[in-house]
Design brief:
With 285 residues, this protein is of the alpha/beta class. Helices cover 39% and strands 14% of the residues. It is globular and about 60 Å long. The structure holds adenosine monophosphate (AMP) and manganese (II) ion (MN) (3 copies). The site of one manganese (II) ion has 4 residues, from loops.
Length: 285
């Protein structure tokens, strides 16, 4: 069993990269990918664990994109995370995220929610600050009853204090990933889009701009949804990927590998991805 989607303290998870590599070993995974949001920051520490653990550690990222007016996340798996061009691109994104975070703080303060920049940064263990960290401060100061409430009333995509940062076009994200030797995979289709959204048409379009797969295994998919995405991947000749989207204590009830308990991403997904990587040759001798 494999898990190709997880987060550490370098974005909005609560576990260190080392702890996650060790946990993957302890629960007997064949592979684990670390895919923090818009950062490569945890990958050196994660990959340094490789000789000490049995599962294959896969360097990854989850890039924030905008597609048809909504947020779409794209995973880059098997990236060369030391690629200077990729590092520079991610760094520029980080500056834009920082500016948007400051604007969100102003919007909250304008609504008489007196949280400070220091409180928000104190919530984040590294310099990548996301709305998850805002949500925690809002709960702590009593402006929201729960993180869910904070997103629903204030900072969710449709909330009054949300400020988008310039997210990537899917073609751009897929290009960044593939130029760094990675495999481009759309994360959790079906989430963040309206019911009845035509994923069949969307995936065909996204395939045209360079995506190579999408998640067909995800903790909160029901059997019907999983079947739909598996069939769609087959029909479009795209790889059906999957993972737990583990965030440690920030997403209670989601465990590495098994998600809510019944997630099971088969090992063969990994083999298919490895064949797609640049420079792959079938050894015939
Ligand atoms: P950001 O990248 O800073 O815009 O924050 C996006 C992150 O916020 C996502 O990766 C989720 O972890 C979290 N998030 C977004 N919308 C919601 C929601 N409605 N409920 C809970 N968490 C959310
Ligand atoms: Mn997240
Ligand atoms: Mn995501
Ligand atoms: Mn994720």
């Amino acid at each position: 069993m494999i898990d190709l989607h997880s987060h550490s303290i370098f974005s909005d998870g609560t576990d260190t990269p080392e702890a996650m590599a060790q946990a993957a070993h302890a629960c007997g995974l064949t592979a684990l990918a670390l895919t923090d949001h818009d950062t490569l920051g945890g990958l050196d520490r994660f990959m340094a664990q490789q000789p000490a653990v049995a599962p294959l550690l896969v360097p990854g990222i989850e890039l924030s994109c905008r597609f048809m007016g909504r947020s779409l996340h794209m995973l880059g798996l098997f990236l060369d995370y030391r690629d200077p061009v990729l590092i520079e691109r991610i760094q520029r994104m980080r500056v834009q995220r920082l500016e948007r975070n400051r604007m969100m703080l102003e919007r909250l303060r304008a609504r008489a929610i007196p949280i400070t920049w220091e409180e928000v940064t104190a919530e984040a263990p590294t310099d990548l600050i996301s709305r998850t960290h805002f949500a925690r401060v809002l709960v702590r100061c009593g402006a929201a009853g729960s993180a869910k409430d904070a997103f629903q009333r204030l900072i969710g995509d449709d909330g009054p204090c949300y400020v988008p940062f310039p997210e990537l076009a899917p073609a751009e994200a897929a290009g960044w990933i593939r130029q760094a030797g990675g495999v481009a995979v759309v994360a959790h289709p079906g989430r963040g889009f309206p019911r009845g959204f035509r994923w069949d048409q969307a995936m065909l379009e996204l395939k045209g701009v360079g995506i190579q797969g999408f998640e067909a295994y995800y903790p909160d998919y029901g059997p019907v949804e999983q079947r739909y995405f598996l069939d769609l991947a087959k029909a479009l000749d795209l790889i059906p990927s999957g993972g737990s989207d583990y965030h440690g204590g920030h997403k209670p009830g989601i465990a590495l590998g098994v998600g809510g308990g019944s997630l099971a991403v088969p090992d063969e997904v990994l083999a298919r991805m490895q064949k797609l990587r640049p420079g792959y040759t079938d050894s015939v001798c």
